[in-house]
Amino acid sequence: MKIVIAGAGKVGFTVAQRLCREGHDITLIDTRRELLESASNAMDVMGVCGSCAAPSILREAEINEADVFIAATGNDEANLVSSQFARKMGAKHTVVRLREQDYMDDLEALQRYMGLSLIINPDFVTAQEISRALQFPTATQIDSFPDCELEIVTFRIPKSSTLDGVTLFDLPKHQKQKVLICAVERDGNVRIPDGSFVLQAGDSISVTAPPKVLRSFYKEAESNQKAVKSVLILGGSRIAVYLTQMLDSTGVKVTIIENDRERGNQLAELLQYADVDCGDGTDTMVLARNSLQNADGFVALTNYDEDNIILSIYAKKHGIEKVVSKVNNEKFTDLLHDLFPDTTLSPKNLVADRIAGYVMGIAHANDRSTIEALYNLGKDVVAAEFVVGAKSACIGKTLAELRLKPGVLLAAVVRDGKSFLPDGSTALAPGDRAVVVTAGRQIFSLDEILA
Amino acid sequence: MNYRVVSNILGKVLVTEAILLLLPMTAAICYRESALPFLWTMLPLLLIGGALSTVKPKNSDLFAREGFVIVGLSWVLMSAFGALPFVLSGDIPHYIDALFETVSGFTTTGSSILENVENMSRGGNFWRLFTHWVGGMGVLVFIAAILPVSGDHYIHVMRAEVPGPTVSKLVPKARKTARILYMIYAGLTFIEMVFLLFGGMDFYDAILHAFATAGTGGFSTKAASIAGFNSVYIEMVVATFMMLFGVNFNLFYFILLGQGLAIFKSEELRIYLITIASSVLAIALNIMRSVGGFGQGLRYAYFQVATVMSTTGFATADFDKWPEFSRWLLVLLMFGGACAGSTAGGLKLSRVIILFKSYLYELKQLILPTRVKRIWFEGKAVSDQTVRSVLVYFFTYLAIIGIGTLLIALDEHDLVTNLTASVACMSNIGPGLNLVGPTGNFAFFSVFSKLVLILEMLLGRLEIFPVLFLFAPSVWKKR
């Protein structure tokens, strides 16, 4: 595929590196010539020097032949403008990195009216990743559907888990609430399990359910992991707001320490349930009065990498099990990854991971595809979201009546902005969004799931 | 220094050379000559090359330093082995002479030590002219096009081999760029061959002269070079193609993309064409009395200007007998060379243009010291670093020509011979003036002088630094 990336900073560079290794043709656009030079010295890519919001520069990058345009500069407006040019000039897919809270207000509208394939918000992605690290430490993947009513989590069943040896038919006996196990990877083979499937320790399973249910399901499966009940967050950044909202929805008690009183007030306005403490997080007294010792998790999100790193070492030393610190400085991230694995997160790396994963998903699909969104759940397992068309052959029959291909499963239905798990009596209606999980096969339109 | 990557790629280069030798060997068999000289050369190439390429790199890290070393060593080794068929077949009995001929071939110089080429075996002559084609676009670019060696860093190797002040890719992937370049190269060669066949050349001569023109080399199968065919049509075809192969290949790619007229936006191409036209006119006027009319003057002038500008070195007339003005104008053109990104040698026009502009810039700066102004080339402001590297290159170029002239002066020949021999080798042209003029050859030089000229040819073709770095101890340090 031909891919044009605007912005050769950390995000653009990392995305280019991943995709270049997959054999795609990459053209980078940036105003900073030295960045382009170092990129073309490090990998087999081409650079165009100039502003990505200028049509002439996009033309020079041959945007008309591009399969994917990725706007990954640090400037929201430049990203939006260039994505619009790119789309009108012939780029098939557009991926945009957006940060400003105001744009996040109605993502779906933004996506629809601007014709964007994917919007990536670094703060939101980072919050998601921290939430995963706190609540599903062994999970390899976690995705949520647009309205956040349902999530898909992929994790490996540990030894001595209560799930070991359970037949799927019997799962409701072990588990009060309804979950859907959509894919299982065993010994490198991926399959969609049916009712008679027996789970084993070592299987990697992808599970769909509402977030709260998923957490209790995960807690039961991972009997030796202590559940996180209270979290202390340092620094009231945008990431902290997203993270608190996510943790709130799963019933975790959150305390935020924020130095600035003004910002503290804003936080209190935004967040109903969280405690906001106004004080200097580097002060041991402040940490003590917010009962650092009793917290299950500690997250350092200040704007200063050094503060974050030192405080997370301090928290670790005080026996807090789950410690996560955000590190922006690109030079630190690799060093810290060696020193303290699993405790540092680089937002830029996360964004690059997401974008590269998404583009690889597009590369696997093709032109006839009507896929609205794609979630890569692991090796060969893909969840694809479709809009049910008025003429679809899937309409009018209940799921029990529809005959599906092997290796295909309807994992979730979104209707009127609410998502739910389908069962045998569910019937699809026009305008629904259907999330289909496939293992080891590719489908490009909804009707292909029928046998 | 990542020795494993270096030896792996060097191995591939040697194996590739063995495979390329199949072509002259086939020619030898077709003309009922012995294939043994080629077989005996291929054997060590395959053994050593095969052994080297089994060295698996631990990591494929490859930086500018490795790129320079790979290119420098590849060319030295290729020439060293490429000389063997001439010695083994007895065409050129002395190894240093054979090496001179091979380096002259690969570097597309075209200076010869042969007294009479028509005594050569047909297979040997095929190899001699084929080396021009191989060296013209470069072996490492060829390897990039056909073998999956590319990786993320192969661009450093291509940069070290492709001539010109800056190397730009045509498409994002280095491998595809290399393929496009070779397709244009092979396509143009084929077209020229067809044109030559129409002019009454036999197949053997047509294909070999197409090879020699494409690489802007200058070897010929005739002692009298192109004049030996005695045909105005062939002269015009060869002259025109020499001119074409002196054009930046990126521009041919734009033509392929259907942006034909856009190429005239290229400042370098415009100056190239203007220089050719005005030089042809000046020389034609200067020589018309001695060659019998303005028409004849144009004919000889066009061919000689094309051959010198494109650094090819074919001859249709003994320009050594021309008036002093024409002789010296041709020597000046020898320094300049043709466009960057072509198969031609010399300083490259784009460097000359940047040099002139920075000269004017410095002059204006003296008059108006407070004015802020940049040097512009091809519609873009040239970075200070590019200007600096052009200046350094120009100085090194002149210094090497000077030192080369000094060293071969030990042979006690006259200054014009020594200087033009040095310039002709450094700029990869071929013939110079006086003893090394179009009708002469390089056989009379001592072994030492031949080695000096061999080094100059390699320095000129690889744009100095890859060869120079082979002598720098810091390059060889283990990382």
How does this model look, in words?
The complex is a heterodimer of chains A (451) and B (479). Chain A is α/β, with parallel strands linked by helices. Among the domains of chain A are: 2-120 and 352-356, NAD(P)-binding Rossmann-like Domain (Rossmann fold, 3-Layer(aba) Sandwich); 369-449, Alpha-Beta Plaits, CATH 3.30.70. Chain A is built from 15 helices and 22 strands. Chain A has helices spanning 10-21, 33-42, 55-60, 76-88, 101-104, 107-114, 122-135, 171-174, 211-221, 238-249, 261-270, 284-289, 305-317, 330-339, 347-364; strands at residues 2-6, 25-30, 46-49, 68-71, 93-97, 118-120, 139-144, 151-156, 180-186, 189-191, 204-209, 230-234, 253-258, 275-278, 297-300, 322-326, 344-345, 373-378, 381-387, 408-415, 418-420, 433-439. In chain A, the strands form 4 sheets. In chain A, strands 3-2-1-4-5-6 form a 6-stranded parallel β-sheet, sandwiched between helices. Chain A has a 6-stranded parallel β-sheet with strand order 14-13-12-15-16-17, sandwiched between helices. A 5-stranded antiparallel β-sheet of chain A has the order 7-8-11-9-10. In chain A, helix 10 (238-249) links the parallel strand 12 and strand 13 (253-258). In chain A, helix 1 (10-21) packs parallel to helix 15 and helix 7 (122-135) packs across helix 15 (347-364). Chain A is globular, with a radius of gyration of 23 Å. Chain B has 479 residues and is mainly α. Chain B has 21 helices and 2 strands. Chain B has helices spanning 3-20, 22-30, 36-53, 64-82, 84-89, 95-106, 122-137, 139-146, 155-161, 174-198, 203-214, 232-245, 249-256, 267-291, 294-309, 324-336, 349-367, 384-408, 415-426, 447-461, 465-469, and strands at residues 376-377, 380-381. Chain B has a two-stranded antiparallel ribbon. In chain B, helix 18 (384-408) runs antiparallel to helix 20 (447-461) and helix 19 (415-426) runs parallel beside helix 20. Chain B is globular. The interface between A and B is medium-sized, with 14 and 17 residues.
